[in-house]
Amino acid sequence: MATERLEAAAGPGAGELPPLPPYAAWAPAELQATLADIDAPAQGPHSLRYFNTAVTKPSPGLPALVSVGYVDGELIDRYDSETQHWKHYLENSCIEGLRRYVEHGRAALVRAERPMVRVSAKESHGFVTLSCRAHGFYPRPISISWLKKGRVQAQETKRGSVTPNGDGTYHAWASIEGLPAEKHEYQCCMEHASLPEPGLFSWEPPSSLLPIVLGAVIAVVVVIVVWKSRWGRKEQGYVIAKGSNAAI
Q1: pLDDT over threshold 90, residue 174
Q2: What pLDDT score was predicted for residue 180?
Q3: CA-CA distance, 96 to 109, in Å (whole number)?
Q4: 143: closest CA among 152, 151, 204?
Q5: Does domain 116-201 have CATH number 3.90.870.40?
Q6: What's the pTM value of the predicted model, to 2 decimals?
Q7: Is 79 helix (H, G, I), strand (E, B) or coil?
Q8: pLDDT band at 32 (very low <50, low <70, confident <90, very high)
Q9: In sequence order, what are the residues at sequence separation of 6 or more whose Cβ sits closer than 8 angstroms to the Cβ of residue 38?
Q10: How far from 247 is each of 61, 232, 241, 242, 244, CA to CA, in Å?
């Protein structure tokens, strides 16, 4: 370890201040102002000292160079290589790194997946429970509420927590209880970043598939009957060709 001590003194009758040491060339403006004031004859002598400490093999976290400056025993400047290293990192490398991360993550920042909405109804004990479920939306924040005749039913609405899916999207739900005869008066209101405006969703009775299924079955049966009928006619009109052996 090597230590160097530099001193500069000024006092009345000294004329001009002695030149600053080369280490003080980068002294801050506060130091320059202090040195400009110490030339007043009535103030007596003053001192400017710089102490430099250099470490040949510094341990991790220990600066290799420390320089401190004093005027009349008061600290007016300090420099160490470790602090400058971190200052450079924060002002340059760190900012550049953050810019790269933002650029790489821009797709995730602007990603917006619309929720798939399903409204269901279940009647029990003279009441109906309407449920509004949102699946596959992103980002996470979402608002689901129930309206009755256009008015928000905040206290009557039950909400589940927003939970993640395996693909990085989320799902959530909200339900409300009412009278079966009034279920058509309710609407589910959903607000999400992927929707240009709040979406309104109502319960709709499921369409019956029985007529469609019966129609398809009847059509298949008719086709089979017609096909068998034609095939039977062809077999009845079969004629043995001349010269063939009819007895097998």
Answers
A1: yes
A2: 93
A3: 18
A4: 152
A5: no
A6: 0.47
A7: strand
A8: low
A9: 10, 17, 46, 71
A10: 110, 23, 13, 13, 9
